[in-house]
Amino acid sequence: MASEGHDPNSICKTINDMLNNAPGTPSANTAPTPGAGDELFMGLTLSGLLLAGLFSLVGMAFVIYARKQGRLIVGVCGVALMAFTYFITNTWLILLIGTLLSFLPLILKRFDIDL
């Protein structure tokens, strides 16, 4: 039972307004920022972080292979694969540059360019 002078709808509206305007609660008038909360670590998204890890592992394998075989270009590509993700945070660029660096030793070997 509602006491006289108090409308149940106005009480619910008042409580709702109080909850919506609580500190730390986003306002209903503010639109969410696109991509907000997508950054995980060092400005990388989850897929970018996984790609960075994958290309770092490939780079480490290149460096180990280059030390055993004495192939300079494979070692340089390996170090570049391990380092470039610290400077690039765009996921598509990580994929593009990592793929190019991964296949660069094979392309150079195909054209008989050995450094």
- How much of the residues is beta strand, in percent? under 5%
Low confidence ranges: none
Q: Radius of gyration, rounded?
A: 27 Å
Counting helices, strands and paired strands, the structural category is: mainly alpha
Total number of helices: 4
Distance between the termini: 89 Å
Mean pLDDT: 83
| Largest sheet geometry | none
- Total strand segments: 0
Shape assignment? rod-shaped
SSE series: HHHH
Helix content: 55-70%
Folded structure, characterized:
This protein is 60% helix and 0% strand. It has 115 residues and is mostly helical. It has a domain at 42-115. The chain is built from four helices and no strands.
Keywords:
115 residues; rod-shaped; mainly alpha; single chain; 60% helix
Summarize the SSE layout with pairings:
Layout: H1 8-20, H2 46-69, H3 72-83, H4 91-110
Helix pairs in contact: 2-3, 2-4, 3-4
What is the compact description of this entry?
The protein has 115 residues and is mainly alpha-helical. Helices cover 60% and strands 0% of the residues.
